[in-house]
Design goal:
The chain has about 725 residues and is α/β, with parallel strands linked by helices. Helix 24 (about 600-615) packs antiparallel against helix 25 (about 620-640).
Length: about 725
C-alpha cells in the first residue's frame, strides 16, 4: 500500500534515482540522492551550492558529474505534484526502510498535508520567544511546514538562522532536514545557523541538552514522534528477520528473544527514569515524547503534535490527558482517519492533531474536530466545556462528537446514565478472557475428539448470535469464514482445545451459558458492539471476552444483552472506541437506568431471549425477528428519554445498515431498519411520524431489517 504522497512523487522518484546513479554511480544510494537534492535545494533557495557543501563537508570532487543540470528537471516534476517544494524535498530525502524497520522505529513518515494542517493551526498561536523545536524531526517535514507559515524574507531567514531546531537518530535524516528547510531561504548564513542546531541524538536520553538549548522553554514544540510500543514480540522478530507471515499465523520454530528483550529493558529503564505521566502497561514512544514535549515547551509556548488516537482513548494515557488539560489554556484536537492515505497503512487507522497553547488564566473550551468518512475535517469545531467533559467523562477521555447537536445529546444521555463499571452502580461486571489465542496455541487441535471443547472466535459472534459465521480454511488473518443464515444450528470451529489445557476456573465457566462480545470492532463498522449469549460446552478465545455480573444472575445478563445490542448504546460506544472494545472502555460505557425487575426491564429480558432462541430455528420468521429488535431498540431509546428527533441523530451514525435490502420506490438505498425502529418509538410515544408508513412499504418491497450486509448479499437472513 502506498500513501498519496508516495504516488504523487513517483515520477520525481524515478528522476531522482536516475540523477543519483549518474552523479555517484558507485556510491551509497541514499548519499547520492541527498547530494542531488542539495543541488535542487540550492536552485530553489538561490544560494551557492559549493558554499553549502563546504559548510556541511561534502567533497564535490568525488562526484562523477555535476548534479545541477538535474535540478531544474526535478523542480519541474515537483511542481506538477502540487506539493510545496520544501515539503517534497523533505519527502524525497527520507531513507527507504523495510516494513519491519518502520515498525521497530515507529517511522511512519509525516504527510505534507498533515504537516501543513498542524503548522497552520499552531504557528499563529506562537507569541513567546525561544526556539521552535522538533525532538524527532526526521527529514524536516514539520520544521519546513512551520517555517513556511512565516512570510518569505527577513522574518523567515531569522527564524531559520536563530530559532529552528531539530534532533534525530539518523545523520541522513538530518541532512534531509537541512536541505529541505534550506530551500526556503536565500541566505547561506541562515542555513549555517540552522545546521548548527540540528542534533544527532536520542531526544529521550538528552534532557540536559534540551535544557541548554531552551533554558526558558521552547516557543513551539512541533512533531510527529514515533508511534510504537517498546516491546519485542515473536511476530515482529520474525518479520524483522525477513519472514513473510500474516498476523495470527502459527510459528514453525521458537526463537530466543531474551537478548533483544534484555536490551529493551535497559533502554526503557534509561528513558523512563524520571517520567511521571506514563501510566501503567507497556511503554510507548509517543507517550514518552509527549511528556518530553510538555517539559520542553515554555510557560506560554505552543505544543503541536501528531499522535495516535490512544491519547484520548486509552486507560494508560489518563495522566497525560490530565496534565495536558492542566497545562493548556487553549486546546484544539482534530481526530482524523487515514482515509486520505496520509500513511501507507490501513485507511481506518485513526490519529490526532493536537495543538495546546500553554498558559495560566481562564481556560477556554476544548475545540474538537472529527473528520468524516472521507477523512475531511469540518470547517467548524465543536466546543467542549471542560466542566461538562469532566462530568460525563471523569477519566478525561474525549467523545468523538461531530456537531454541537451530537455533543448535547451525548452529554444528556451520559448525565442520565450509569456506567458499566461504576462501583456504586448495579452491574458489578466480571470479565474473563478464557483462552489466549497466542499463548495457548500449542494446545489447539483441528478435530474435537472426546476430551476437547470447540473454540469460539470473534468471527463467530454477531448481535444475538454465537455461530453467525463458519470456519472454512486458512489460518490467521488469511482464514476464510462464511456467513451463515439465522436458521443455521451447527457450529463450525477452526480449533478445539483439550480439557487438560484449560484452567479449572475456565472449565467451570464453560459449564453454563454466559454473555460474550467481540472485542475487535471499528467506529465506522456496520455495528460496533456485538454481544451474544454463549452456550455451555464451548470455550471462548481472547477476542471473545465473557462477562458476568455479581447480582441479578440470568435476568441481568439478558438485560445487558438487550442494552449492549441496542442502537443507542452502540452510538454511545462509537463516540469513544477506535478498534477494540477493551475492558476499560466497556467499564466507562454509559447505560440507561433500567432495572430488570421493572416492566420495561422484564420486556427487554424477554425480547433478548426470543432473539437468542431465533438462531438455529428453521421455522423462524425473519420479519418478526426484526420487529422484536426494533421494539427492543425503541424501548431503550424511550427509557433513556429520547424522542424521534434524537433517534434520527443516532441513526445517522449507521450508514452501512440495510445494504443489500430493496429500497422503497424512487429511493437509492433501503432504510428499513431505521424506519422500523423509528416507527416503534413513534408508537411508544404516541406521536405521528412518516416512518410508520415507510416501514409498511419496506415490508411490501421485500426488505428485512437488521440483516448484516454480508449476509444480505449472499441471500442469507
Amino acid at each position: 500500500m502506498k500513501s498519496l504522497e508516495q504516488r504523487l512523487l513517483l515520477a520525481t522518484e524515478h528522476l531522482l534515482n536516475a540523477a543519483a546513479a549518474e552523479v555517484l554511480p558507485n556510491g551509497n544510494r541514499t548519499a547520492a540522492r541527498l547530494t542531488v537534492l542539495e543541488a535542487v535545494s540550492a536552485v530553489s533557495g538561490g544560494w551557492n551550492l559549493d558554499g553549502f557543501w563546504d559548510l556541511v563537508g561534502v567533497d564535490s570532487s568525488r562526484l562523477d558529474v555535476d548534479p545541477t543540470p538535474w535540478a531544474d528537471k526535478i523542480l519541474t516534476s515537483i511542481a506538477g505534484t502540487g506539493i510545496p517544494t520544501a515539503s517534497a524535498l523533505s519527502a524525497l530525502s527520507r531513507e527507504v526502510l523495510p516494513p519491519s524497520q518502520q515498525r521497530t522505529t515507529g517511522a511512519y513518515y509525516t504527510d505534507w498535508r498533515l504537516a501543513e494542517l498542524l503548522a497552520a493551526t499552531a504557528v499563529p498561536e506562537v507569541t513567546a520567544d525561544g526556539p521552535w523545536v522538533d525532538t524527532a524531526c526526521g527529514s524536516g517535514m514539520l520544521l519546513a511546514a512551520a517555517a513556511q507559515q512565516v512570510p518569505a524574507g527577513a522574518a523567515r531567514d531569522s527564524l531559520i538562522r536563530d530559532r529552528l531546531t531539530g534532533a534525530d537518530l539518523s545523520a541522513n535524516a538530518l541532512r534531509g532536514a537541512l536541505l529541505s528547510v534550506a530551500s526556503l531561504t536565500g541566505e547561506l548564513d541562515a542555513v549555517s545557523g540552522f545546521a548548527s542546531r540540528l542534533l544527532l541524538h536520542d531526544s529521550l536520553r538528552s534532557a540536559s541538552t534540551w535544557a541548554k538549548i531552551a533554558p526558558t522553554g521552547a516557543a513551539l514544540v512541533i512533531g510527529n514522534p514515533p508511534w510504537e510500543k517498546l516491546r519485542v514480540s515473536r511476530h515482529e522478530a520474525a518479520k524483522s528477520a525477513g519472514a513473510v507471515r500474516a498476523y495470527g499465523q502459527s510459528f514453525e520454530r521458537d526463537d530466543d528473544l531474551a537478548p533483544d528483550r534484555s536490551r529493551l529493558v535497559t533502554y526503557i529503564e534509561e528513558v523512563a527514569s524520571g517520567t511521571r505521566l506514563q501510566g501503567r502497561g507497556e511503554h510507548d514512544l509517543y507517550k514518552l515524547f509527549l511528556e518530553l514535549g510538555m517539559g520542553v515547551a515554555s510557560e506560554d509556548g505552543v505544543l503541536a503534535l501528531l499522535l495516535p488516537a490512544g491519547l484520548i482513548r486509552s486507560q494508560g494515557t489518563e495522566s497525560l490527558r490530565r496534565e495536558l488539560n492542566s497545562m493548556a489554556q487553549s486546546l484544539s484536537i482534530s481526530v482524523i482517519e487515514n482515509r486520505a492515505k496520509h500513511f501507507a497503512i490501513d485507511t481506518r487507522f485513526k490519529f490526532l492533531s493536537v495543538v495546546a497553547k500553554i498558559g495560566k488564566g481562564r481556560k477556554k473550551a476544548i475545540e474538537l474536530k472529527v473528520a468524516d468518512r472521507t477523512g475531511t475535517l469540518p470547517a467548524k469545531s465543536v466546543k467542549l466545556s471542560r466542566a461538562q467533559l469532566a462530568k460525563v467523562r471523569p477519566d478525561w477521555t474525549i467523545p468523538e462528537v461531530r456537531t454541537a447537536q451530537e455533543w448535547e445529546l451525548y452529554s444528556r444521555l451520559a448525565n442520565n446514565a450509569v456506567t458499566v463499571g461504576d462501583p456504586n452502580g448495579p452491574w458489578s461486571p466480571t470479565y474473563r478472557r478464557e483462552i489466549d489465542m497466542t499463548l495457548n496455541r500449542k494446545d489447539f487441535r483441528r478435530k474435537r475428539g472426546n476430551a476437547a471443547l470447540p473454540l469460539l472466535e470473534g468471527r463467530h459472534v454477531s448481535q444475538y448470535r454465537w455461530r453467525a459465521k463458519s470456519y472454512r480454511s486458512g489460518e490467521g488473518r488469511s482464514a476464510i469464514w462464511n456467513p451463515e443464515p439465522l436458521s443455521e444450528n451447527a457450529l463450525r470451529a477452526q480449533w478445539h482445545v483439550s480439557l487438560d489445557a484449560i484452567h479449572p476456573g475456565t472449565i467451570q465457566r464453560t459449564l453454563r451459558s454466559r454473555i460474550g462480545f467481540c472485542d475487535i470492532t471499528g467506529q465506522t463498522n456496520e455495528r460496533s458492539l456485538l454481544a451474544a449469549r454463549i452456550p455451555d460446552g464451548v470455550v471462548c478465545g481472547n477476542k471473545v471476552p465473557t462477562i458476568s455480573f455479581e447480582d441479578g444472575a440470568v435476568d441481568r445478563e439478558d438485560l445487558f444483552l438487550a442494552l449492549a445490542n441496542s442502537l443507542v448504546v452502540d452510538w454511545m460506544l462509537r463516540r469513544i472506541v477506535t478498534t477494540t472494545v477493551n475492558f476499560f472502555l466497556l467499564d466507562t460505557l454509559c447505560l440507561p437506568h433500567i432495572d430488570e425487575n421493572a416492566d420495561v426491564g422484564r420486556e427487554l429480558v424477554a425480547l433478548a431471549r426470543l432473539l437468542t432462541a431465533a438462531e438455529g430455528d428453521p421455522t423462524v420468521d425473519v420479519w418478526q425477528v426484526g420487529q422484536w429488535r426494533a421494539r427492543s431498540d425503541a424501548l431503550v431509546a424511550a427509557s433513556w428519554g429520547l424522542d424521534v428527533g434524537d433517534l434520527e441523530i443516532v441513526l445517522r451514525d449507521f450508514p452501512l445498515l440495510d445494504r443489500g435490502q430493496p429500497p422503497l420506490e424512487g429511493e437509492a438505498r433501503s432504510t428499513v431498519t431505521a424506519d422500523c425502529v423509528l416507527a416503534e418509538l413513534a408508537r411508544i410515544l404516541a406521536v405521528p411520524h412518516p416512518s410508520l408508513d415507510r416501514a409498511r412499504g419496506a415490508r411490501m418491497a421485500g426488505a428485512t431489517p437488521y440483516v448484516p450486509a454480508e449476509f444480505a448479499v449472499k441471500g442469507l437472513v
